[in-house]
């Protein structure tokens, strides 16, 4: 990319006067707001169906609480790693950035593996989304969350791999992009905190 | 001699991380106590605290501009409306369970 192309879109690095934010950061917060609406409506549907139901299973007997708790620890740890990656990048330590990004990605993949184990356990017991309202909600909510994790993994792999070439064009621009990816990743962590509490423990 | 700000951030992040793990362990423990309504309130309360901590420190909401806070305030209002709409509907339009059976 040439310098002229880089200059064409303003506020990629410096903050706008009116919002006090650079474009991408404002955009990711709007996106996260829409994501809150999406998961909010699904949580709302869960509450409506649970409160309006004649009977409801004891969720903790249906689901594997130890695996769910372990997955919570794994996601919080990966959130911690992506912060360290961003801090390393700000300190201009690219090797450290790569190390922490790969740790974030690895933990995310481990999370998905444990989720896969849980799903396999359900399928072995012939428990499918069609089996009950609770299982339909469980598969919908956790499946949607898993898709978000996969999306995050793809973005993180891009930034640690080919996307890191942007650093050669403009370091701050690349730092900003990693910050955006980090904000998304923390959001995915927050969603899991609520999913674990509502589906596994209540 | 002043301490390196990166080191201070690292220490703070580690403390928050350990706090988050402890809170996760706490809600699992509370769920085993079978406290019914109190347990539900405590679990949702602690989960919300965890979410606020992640937002406040990890997502740096403590230092964010008013624009983001306004976007989030609007979102929270809509989110809470979505969350409590069903409760309102059920509370003000009571239908006995028999109405659901066989329909």
Offer a quick outline of the entry.
With 202 residues, chain A is mainly alpha-helical.
Quickly list its features.
heterodimer; A: 202 residues; mainly alpha; Four Helix Bundle (Hemerythrin (Met), subunit A); elongated; B: 103 residues; 3 helices; 75% helix
Low-confidence sequence ranges of chain B: none
Number of strands of chain B: 0
How many β-strand runs of chain A?
0
Q: Helical element count of chain B?
A: 3
| Biggest sheet record of chain A | none
Q: What is the number of independent domains of chain B?
A: 2
Q: Could you say which structural class the secondary elements and strand pairing of chain B correspond to?
A: mainly alpha
What CATH calls the topology of chain A is: Four Helix Bundle (Hemerythrin (Met), subunit A)
- Structural class of chain A, by secondary structure, is mainly alpha
How far do the termini of chain A sit from each other? 52 Å
Describe this structure in words.
The complex is a heterodimer of chains A (202) and B (103). Chain A has 202 residues and is mostly helical. Chain A has one domain (3-201): Cytochrome c oxidase, subunit III, four-helix bundle (Four Helix Bundle (Hemerythrin (Met), subunit A), Up-down Bundle), CATH 1.20.120. In chain A, 79% of the residues lie in helices and 0% in strands. Chain A contains eight helices and no strands. Chain A is elongated. The N and C termini of chain A lie far apart (52 Å). By secondary structure, chain B is mainly α. In chain B, 75% of the residues lie in helices and 0% in strands. Chain B starts with a helix and ends in an 11-residue tail after the last helix. At the A-B interface, α2, α4 and α8 of A face α1, α2 and α3 of B.
SSE diagram, text form:
The complex is a heterodimer of chains A (202) and B (103).
Chain A: H1 3-8, H2 23-51, H3 59-62, H4 65-90, H5 94-124, H6 133-160, H7 166-169, H8 171-201
Chain B: H1 5-32, H2 37-58, H3 66-92
């Amino acid at each position: 990319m040439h310098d002229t192309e880089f200059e064409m879109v303003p506020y990629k690095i410096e903050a706008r006067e009116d919002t006090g934010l650079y474009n991408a950061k404002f955009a990711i917060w709007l996106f996260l707001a829409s994501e809150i609406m999406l998961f909010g409506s699904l949580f709302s549907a869960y509450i409506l169906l649970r409160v309006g139901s004649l009977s409801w299973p004891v969720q903790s007997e249906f689901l594997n609480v130890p695996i769910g708790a372990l997955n919570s620890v794994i996601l919080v740890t990966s959130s911690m790693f992506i912060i360290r990656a961003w801090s390393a990048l700000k300190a201009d330590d690219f090797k450290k950035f790569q190390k922490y990004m790969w740790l974030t990605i690895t933990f995310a993949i481990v999370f998905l593996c444990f989720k896969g184990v849980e799903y396999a356990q359900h399928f072995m017991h012939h428990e499918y989304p069609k089996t009950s309202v609770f299982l339909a909600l469980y598969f919908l909510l956790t499946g949607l969350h898993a898709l978000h994790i996969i999306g995050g993994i793809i973005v993180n792999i891009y930034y640690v791999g080919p996307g890191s070439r942007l650093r050669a064009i403009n370091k701050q621009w690349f730092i900003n992009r990693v910050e955006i990816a980090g904000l998304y990743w923390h959001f995915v962590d927050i969603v899991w905190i609520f999913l674990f509490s509502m589906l596994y423990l209540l | 001699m002043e301490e390196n700000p990166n080191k201070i951030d690292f220490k703070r992040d580690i403390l928050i991380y350990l706090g988050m793990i402890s809170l996760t362990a706490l809600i699992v423990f509370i769920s085993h106590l079978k406290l019914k309504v109190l347990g539900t309130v405590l679990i949702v309360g602690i989960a919300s605290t965890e979410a606020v901590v992640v937002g406040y420190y990890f997502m740096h909401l403590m230092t964010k501009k008013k624009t983001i806070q306004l976007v989030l305030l609007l979102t929270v209002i809509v989110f809470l409306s979505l969350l409590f709409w069903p409760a309102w509907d059920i509370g003000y339009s009571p239908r006995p369970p028999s109405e659901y059976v066989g329909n």
